[in-house]
Amino acid sequence: ALAKDWQKEWEPYDKEIRKKQIQNEDYWLGKQFGSDKGATDNLIFESLETFLPIATRPKADPLVESDNTEEGNAIADKVRKMLIYISDILSYNLKMKQVARYWALYMLGVMKVGWSMKSNDITCVAIRPQNLILDPKGTIQEGEYTGYYIGERMEDVASDLVIRFPKKEKFITDKVKEKMGTKLSYIMWTTDEYVFWTLETEVLGKNKNPHWNYPTQQPAQMNEFGSVPMDEQGQPVKQEVEGRNHFTAPKKPYVFLSIFNLGKAPHDDTNLVQQNLSLQDLVNKRLSQIDKNADSANGGLIVSGDSYTEQQAKQAGEALRKGGVIYVPTGDVNSAVKRDSATALPNFVYESLIDYRNEIRNIFGTRGSSPQGTIKEETVGGKQIIKGQDSDRIGGGIASYLEQFSDKVFNWFVQLMYVYYDEPHYASVIGAERAKEFIALTSMELTKKLLVGVKEGSMIPHDPVNQRAEAMELWEKQGIDPITFFDRLEFPNPRESAKNLFLWMSDPIQLFPDLLQQQQAMQAEQMALQGQQMEQQQVQVGQQEEQKAGQDHERNLQMEAFKALTKQA
Question: What is residue 463's predicted lDDT score, i.e. its pLDDT?
């Protein structure tokens, strides 16, 4: 009965919002005013697909805090690293980009979070808003949907539905006439407290919110006497234990992106594509006018009936287009045949086309990010200023909402860790100074209250070229240390690069271990050779000294003999 009432309440609202969604999608695809004649310049596609990479390029930097104790800080750091790992393996930025595209085209962006039985880990997926049934009186406040229920249209084969809902096997089998490969469309209805599934008017199943740890009955703890309290039947007394959760209350596992919302309905009241539909029509209109004028630039042919019949006039026109000759039998040629040229369009027609194009890019905030938007800027500095203005506009217009959106998603990831990480889950992340770290996390470790968010400003678009230029300027003025300098240049390992720079400036050979070994070997050989030479020199000196000592001894003997002979004489 609830499902029937909710669908009935949704249908009138859905019919109105579908018109805008279809119109936006058609214009993005190029099905626009004048497209049947081929005269279109799809600025909406160009601007949106330039806007999205700028807005979603920066990665959301998770921020996790605890009670500032040693244990709390260790848990918070481990959870933060696990969030980084999950974001990487899920390609979170690509999914967020898809959410942003859905928001731009369909007035609402939605991410569904949950648990994957296949990968045995947390998962998330961008949902097409057309597949949802919402409360028309609900709205989106700070990424939170205020409606009581959400219906999601789903599709599955009959055989899988029987596995999921075995009690409804007969109903499903009869529905598909025993052709179990038949696909069936059904609806999953979700509230904060419970979830149920309907196939037409049949309820397939119902359950409590699966992403919440409810209170459990556990045996009472031992008393002061060392025994477990017993009831009248002699059974251990059980007590209710509150389940540990990150959230304070159960929630629907959907996160919404809404920006231009006045609080009247779930979808945005307008968006960037809606604001540019009329300008896109004017661009196509001006382009069509210019195209027609270009076609008529060659002009037509005016032929006098005094000189030609109607059939001869057609032949004369064909001959002229082919570069042939027109023969005038008698009279003045100028009075018999005359070429008529179209009047040139005024300059303001082309100028208005340029203005319309630039205004579309201005509304999207992408003028400085396209070559056409900066074509009149002759200096590099001027082009960078316009590009910087784009980043500021996108950063202030959507980046803060994307940060808030990612904040909600990361909080959901932590809640799912509380519920499903009953066994260790492992992660490999880039830690301090881009060094790889390995961690393991279980729900039993989540004993401290955690504050989860996104680092403020981490998703504001930045220009890598400007960032590198600023780093180079600071480096030249010695206003930045080498580690920060290489980090700004996005080197894989800034500290290692700074260390190599120091070695290069102080002792370059240290950067080349093989050359260093060769040098050390050569030095060792030279020292050994020098040692041998010194030994040889010492031997020679010793021999010379022995020879001299012998000569001196012989001389002394001769002198003593001479003195003796002299004395005798």
Answer: 57
